[in-house]
Amino acid sequence: MAEERTYIMVKPDGVERGLVGEIIKRFESKGYKLVALQLLPTSRELLNEHYCDLKDKPFFPKLINYMLSGPVVGMVWEGKDIVKTGRRLLGETDPLKSAPGTIRGDYCIDVGKNLCHGSDSVESAQREISLWFPNGVLSWERHNVHKLIYE
Ligand code: IDP
Ligand code: MG
Q1: Where is the Nucleoside diphosphate kinase-like domain (predicted)?
Q2: What residues are annotated to the active site?
Q3: Neighbours of ion ligand 2 (CB under 5 A)
Q4: What is the β-pairing status of strands 5-10 and 33-40?
């Protein structure tokens, strides 16, 4: 069976604050495998598609402006139960409700500046990965490390 994948994105505030490395580090140290990584400016078209479920929310225009304020770092991580565990590594949507030790719990305060995105289901992950990485992601083996992480 193919390994589960998720789309993790460092939002413009995270990129500008120099937290890209820290966010990558959390996923790397946990034992997950990086299979795609890019720095790119977002566009209204991509964001409307990415956040299509939220288009009727009152905060939607503000969210789009926030996401357009600078480049983002998008990545795809792979591993066991990565979608759910990835969200736990990020913390709650509202940083003030996020436990210390999570990314949002450690590095931010307001919901409209919450540093990072993580797919909320396997289906959303597949949709977001094909949206942000239309040319696909890498399949590669960690020959030695894999057996030190998984039983
Ligand atoms: P998630 O990022 O934890 O999955 P969603 O509900 O999918 O949360 O919302 C997407 C993004 O929209 C959030 O990460 C946050 O940046 C922003 N957002 C969500 N709720 C609010 C709000 O009540 N006010 C302002 N921004 C919000
Ligand atoms: Mg979401």
Answers
A1: 3-140
A2: 117
A3: 120
A4: unpaired
